[in-house]
């Protein structure tokens, strides 16, 4: 009885020691992965040209349907979201990344196989013996004491989150591209209308100059100049028609399908487009961390950080187990009799003693990849800061440029009316009239381009501020916490 108690006490001590060893090992697992902290943004604390704070909903929380209220544009964006091939590839990249994570995560659990077999063995006396077997088998299941498999699984999950953020970035860029090209087409149509009107005016001037030349009231120089101006206007018309065809082809590519004939009516001119809602900017610390491309870069950094943990865990022993449970009988019916089943387990511990520096090089590679991912993250933040700064600079200057060019158009239009009146009364020369017409047409073109740039700048600002996606307040406050163990 005393001996039994001694053996029981020893067994309890062994169990306590093993439990302490396992607990210590598992506690050490957390130290394999370096602690992650979001890097400090390598940009200024304020955007240049940000101006005074504006009240309103942040761009990242404004749905694209509220930003672009034109019915025709909304329909074009809907078709693009359903058919664009770049967005489709981005969505498939998400599925691939999620599948890779599921494959890696499955390594945390044993693979259980079941089977039934028959073995017929010949004996020396000419007889044969048949045995039947059935059971379950777990082959070389690695017990993840040091967190290697968990780190690889977490890395794959972070990459899946990065792929999802990448898909969001592609979608935001697609929405902005469709909107910008649609605005360009409206400007093309307006410029076509303006060019045709200018051509008609110059053709009429050529007709009058031809009449004056036929009656000796104009010189051949006046006639040739009028013919040259008409030819130039026709060349401009051909150029505008070509540019419009290019823009329409680009829109078809973005939409991913031929433009349907039943598109709803929308603004016919650029000036008729509904006004965009105000877009408050905020601080870089909050704005930049809500952009999907920056979140994707951060998740890649997090994945690289987990890979360092997996590389460090490779220095420690690998613990695996092979186990089986089943039955062997001389007859098939005997396989499932009570008491015929048995089990076995064969644990194995492997420690690498010499690998020619493979583990050390793997660890160095993981750290280099982490440093490269950090550099890519910093670059993504700096690029985003510059994009927002450029858009803000455009917002502050394009409106004034457009206003001044409209004043220029008004002045040139008044000048052309006066010169035309003087020309019809024989006071001004045809050269004066053609010069004023050229100046008016050039001013009208510049004013239209400025209005287009102003509208497209609003679209760009919406995109670079991460417009189109809204998330819960907790996620918005710390988006990197999606997966930053």
Can you walk through the features of this model?
- Strand 1 and strand 2 form a beta hairpin.
- It is built from eleven helices and four strands; from the N terminus they run H-H-H-H-E-E-H-H-H-H-E-E-H-H-H.
- Residues 1-30 and 470-481 have low confidence and may be disordered.
- The longest helix is centred in the middle third of the chain and has 67 residues, at 148-214.
- Helices cover 63% and strands 10% of the residues.
- It has 485 residues and is α+β, with helices and mostly antiparallel strands.
- The chain is elongated and about 135 Å long.
- Helix 4 packs antiparallel against helix 5 and helix 8 runs antiparallel to helix 9.
- Strands 1-2-3-4 form a four-stranded antiparallel beta sheet, with no helix packed on it.
- It has helices at residues 2-32, 64-67, 71-83, 85-106, 148-214, 220-255, 284-287, 292-313, 358-424, 430-464, 473-477; strands at 112-122, 128-143, 318-329, 341-350.
């Amino acid at each position: 009885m005393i001996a039994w108690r001694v053996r029981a006490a020893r067994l309890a001590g062994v169990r306590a020691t093993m439990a302490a060893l396992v607990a210590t090992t598992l506690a050490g697992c957390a130290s394999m992965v370096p602690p992650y902290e979001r890097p400090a943004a390598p940009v200024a604390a304020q955007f240049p040209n940000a101006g005074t704070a504006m009240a309103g909903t942040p761009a990242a929380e404004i749905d694209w349907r509220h930003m672009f209220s034109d019915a025709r544009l909304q329909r074009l964006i809907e078709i693009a979201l359903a058919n664009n091939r770049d967005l489709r590839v981005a969505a498939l990249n998400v599925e691939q990344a999620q599948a890779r994570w599921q494959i890696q995560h499955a390594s945390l659990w044993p693979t259980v196989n079941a089977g039934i077999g028959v073995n017929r063995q010949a004996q020396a006396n000419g007889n044969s013996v048949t045995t039947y077997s059935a059971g379950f088998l777990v082959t070389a299941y690695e017990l993840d004491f040091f967190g290697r498999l968990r780190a690889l699984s977490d890395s794959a999950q972070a990459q899946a989150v990065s792929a999802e953020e990448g898909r969001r970035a592609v979608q935001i860029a697609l929405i902005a591209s469709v909107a910008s090209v649609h605005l360009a087409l409206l400007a093309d149509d307006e410029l076509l209308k303006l060019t045709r009107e200018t051509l008609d005016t110059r053709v009429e001037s050529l007709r009058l100059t031809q009449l004056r030349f036929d009656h000796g009231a104009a010189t051949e120089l006046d006639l040739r100049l009028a013919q040259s101006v008409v030819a130039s206007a026709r060349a401009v018309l051909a150029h505008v028609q070509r540019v419009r065809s290019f823009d329409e082809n680009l829109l078809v590519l973005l939409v991913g399908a031929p433009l349907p004939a039943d598109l709803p009516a929308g603004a016919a001119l650029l000036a008729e487009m509904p006004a965009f809602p105000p877009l408050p900017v905020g601080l870089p610390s909050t704005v930049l961390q809500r952009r999907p491309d920056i979140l994707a870069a951060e998740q890649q950094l997090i994945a690289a950080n987990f890979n360092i943990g997996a590389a460090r865990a490779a220095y420690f022993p690998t613990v695996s187990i092979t186990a089986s449970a089943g039955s062997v009988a001389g007859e098939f019916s005997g396989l499932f009799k009570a008491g015929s089943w048995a089990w076995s387990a064969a644990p194995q511990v492997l420690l690498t003693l010499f690998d020619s520096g493979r583990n050390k090089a793997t660890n160095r590679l993981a750290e280099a990849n982490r440093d490269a991912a950090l550099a890519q993250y910093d670059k993504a933040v700096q690029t985003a800061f510059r994009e927002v700064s450029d858009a803000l600079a455009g917002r502050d200057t394009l409106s004034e440029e457009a206003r001044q060019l409209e004043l220029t158009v008004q002045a040139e239009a008044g000048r052309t009316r006066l010169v035309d009146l003087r020309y019809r009364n024989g006071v001004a020369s045809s050269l004066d009239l053609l010069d004023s017409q050229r100046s008016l047409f050039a001013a009208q073109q510049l004013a239209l381009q400025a209005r287009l740039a102003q509208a497209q700048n609003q679209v760009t600002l919406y995109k670079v501020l991460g417009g189109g996606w809204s998330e819960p307040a907790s996620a918005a406050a710390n988006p990197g916490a999606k997966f930053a163990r």
